[in-house]
Amino acid sequence: xxxxxxxxxxxxxxxxxxxxxxxxxxxxxxxxxxxxxxxxxxxxxxxxxxxxxxxxxxxxxxxxxxxxxxxxxxxxxxxxxxxxxxxxxxxxxxxxxxxxxxxxxxxxxxxxxxxxxxxxxxxxxxxxxxxxxxxxxxxxxxxxxxxxxxxxx
Length: 153
What we know:
Blueprint: E1 9-15, E2 20-23, E3 29-38, E4 49-57, H1 58-67, E5 73-86, E6 92-105
Parallel strand pairs: 4-6
Antiparallel strand pairs: 1-3, 1-5, 2-3, 3-4, 5-6
């Protein structure tokens, strides 16, 4: 029987704080941040969230630190990694993080924290990132389908 291993996660939510960027002693850029991901609402309607720690390396780290701020919507695709260490009280500690493979914008230009009164220097356009608009000439055109109640989906 073949070995089957799969470790893939996709999360979407909002950053709980500005991303923290630093460099390792060998000069590799790393960025850490936390994403608040809403759970499905309960029958009583109470909203709950999980706060998921994410680590991005190299180019992904630079990308996050430039274009995302507290409150930004984000989509992260990556893998789950657990690490352990012994603290100064000789207690074994564990942490579970999502290690980012892909990071994507979710907010539209007008919904980003910068557009809502945040620091304008952090808009993607100010760093030469592509701007996507539903008004772009190459954007797909959707049309209404009459009697769409009969569609099976």
